Amino acid sequence: MGDFAVGNTLETAVTGEVSRVVDCAKELQDSAACWISKTSREEEALRQRVLSLDSNIRRLRLSIAFSVENGHLDTKEAKKLEENLYRASYILSEGDAAAFLPSKSHGRFVSMLLGPIDVHATRKDVKLKVKEEYNSFRDRTAFLFLFFPSLLLVLRSWVWGGCLPALPVQLYQAWLLFLYTGLALRENILRVNGSDIRPWWIYHHYFAMAMALISLTWEIERGPDCLKKQRGVQLFLQWAVMQGVAMILQNRYQRQRLYTRIALGKARRMDVVWGETAGVEGQLWLLAPILFLLQGFEAYVGMLLLKTALVNVVSGWQVTTCGILLIIMAVGNFANTVQTLMAKSRFKAKMKKNKNNLK
Hints:
- The chain has ten helices and no strands.
- By secondary structure, the protein is an all-alpha fold.
């Protein structure tokens, strides 16, 4: 009897505890649902306030420009008002309120690789971690971009008797495909989170991805005339070495200047160094000759590939396609570099004019 009574007591206690746990779970669910509902309403109200303020800033800028054009507002006063509006816009876009501003479209590339996932970060620290990871990825791959083609060229001369075997070159092209896919994916996510990366730079990586993928199917033969047939591959590896040097210089010098500009409020915290077309005053003029040389050499390699295909030195659609892609990338990079130089020149002239007007 005693054991039976103890058993009933234990069963009753366990049943009561389980019932309390279930009731507690229901209570927590109701509390969480109420909190989420309240937070959603507050978030939506805050979002509307942020959007309204952003719209007002844009409207006031247009109003100031219109007033200056019609002579209703003094230039010096307009400049002060513009500076105040810029300060308000900077606070709005760089503070925690930026999470409520509309984000850019994810694009098909991100959707294709990640699916319907929202990559827009609402927390400021998460956005900065995304940027730092991108910079870290660029730093790591810049040295590898220089190392791999240099190694292939050294082995070609000292070990392989002037002729490159297919497997090492294809492994290098597979790594390039991984590199450009990783860069394009990260840059798309950065743009969604407010970075200023130019669209062309992302398109450039799309073209580079296509070229690397096509190069994987490119038949590389070793034979008596391999020196002639592999001339395009050799020149491409030499261009890659030069590109690796340029990437290291950009990562080292331009990013230091970018941090200074962010501290001065002249750039946003999510801004990054733009690949081959980036630059800041002083450093860009140092890198510009290197960039133009790279772009010219890239176009030369592309034209050489087209020539080898036309004279039937190397047959196959891969040669022609890679030649066309290289020329397109060279022209696009050249146009963007010139555009960057002209924009900086116009900005410098505008600042000089405003300084003279204040005197």
